[in-house]
Input
Amino acid sequence: MAVGFAVGVLGVLILSHAAYSTIQYRTLLKITEEEFSGPPINVVFELLLGLVLCMWAALAVPGKVVSLPSNLDFMIFNHRGKAFPLECTLKSK
Amino acid sequence: MVSKTEEAEVNRLESQADNGGGGEWEYLSLVRKLKLRRPDKVLKHGLTILNDPKKRSSLGHDEWTLYEQVAIAAMDCHCLDVAQDCIKVLQKKFPESKRVGRLEAMLLEAKGSWAEAEKAYLSLLEDNPLDQVILKRRVALTKAQGDISGAIQRLSEYLEVFMADHEAWRELAEIYVSLQMYKQAAFCYEELILSQPMIPLYHLAYADVLYTLGGLENLQTAKKYYASTIDLTGGKNNRALFGVCLCTFAVAQLTKGRYKEDKESPELQSLAAAALEKDYKLRAPSKLSLLGSTLRSLKLSS
Output
C-alpha cells in the first residue's frame, strides 16, 4: 500500500519533470526561432515511464473492490480474469 | 441476498481453510448455498479435496456436485484444462446427462468458441425447448459476445414465457442501466419489487435509477424507496442513507423559491446524517471530517 503510494508520487514527479523539460525546450526553440514539432525523444520516454508508474500506482493503491450479489445464471467468462489464470492442475484418478 | 451472519460465517470458513485448518467442504457447501462467486478460493479448496483420494472418497455422492462446482470455478479462473478434466470425469460417470452437456457448452463459451457453444445449446434445447437454464445461458452467451441488443431481445422473449423469473428481470434491469435506458430499467425494477418486496437490493437499485432520471416526482419517489431500503436493512445500508440526504438536497434545489408544502418532516434527513456519522465514527474515523464537510455542503449537519 505504501509502496504503491510512493510509486504514484514518483510517477507524478517524473511527469512534472517531463512537462518542465518540454517548456524549457520550447523556450530554447523560441530563442532560436525554430518550429516546435514535438518534444525531444528523451522527454517522450520520460512521459511513458511516468505514465506506467502512475497507472501501476492507481491500480495498486485503492482497496479491495466489493461486488454486488452475483447473478450466477447469467455469469460470463470473458472478463479480465482471463489475463491472470491460476496455476492449478487436477490429478487424474 | 446474503445476511451479515452468513457472510461472517463464510469469511470465517474461508480464512480457516486458507490457513490450512480444514473445513474446506463446509466452506464450499456454504458458497454453493449462498450462490457466491469466489472462483479463486473455490478452485483452490476444491482441488485440495479432489486431489486427495481419501478426502474425495469421504464425500460419497457429493463428489460429483463438487466436480461440477470446481469445473465452473476453473472456467471462471480461466484454468480450462482443470475444467476439461473435471467434465471428463463427470462424463464418464453420467454419460447422457443434460447437466454435463450444459457444462460442456459452458466450457466452449469460456474458450471463446461462440458458434460451437451456440450449436451445443441449440442441440440441448431440441429435446427440451423450454429448459430455463439453457435459455438463460444462451442469453449470457449473446452478452459475452458483446451483442447487447441481441441479449436484450432474447431476454425479453424469455421473460414473455417465464414472467416470474426474478433473476432474469434483474439481469434485464442491469443491462438497461448499462445502456443508460433508465425508464426501461425502472420498469424492470418495479416488476422485481412487486414480486419480491422484501429484498432491499431492488428498492435501492430502483431508487438509484429514479434519482438518476431526476425531476421532482422521481426524486420524491426515490427518497421514499431509499427510506424503505433503510427500513429493510435496519439502517445499516450507507448508500441508502446517503441517498436520502442527496434526494432531500436535490428536492430543495428544485423547489427553491416555490411555496414549500413541508409535508415531509426534516427529521428524516437529519436522522440519516446522524446515522452516517455514527457509522463512520465506528468504521472509518479517519474519513469522518470528509463526511462532515460533505454533509455540511448539503446543509444537513451543524
User: Anything to note?
Assistant: Chain B touches chain A at residues 1-2, 35-37, 39-40, 43-44, 47, 50-51, 53, 70, 74-79, 81-82, 85-86, 89, 106, 109-110, 112, 133, 136-137, 139-140, 143-144, 167-168, 170-171, 174, 201 (CB under 8 Å). Chain B has a mean pLDDT of 90.
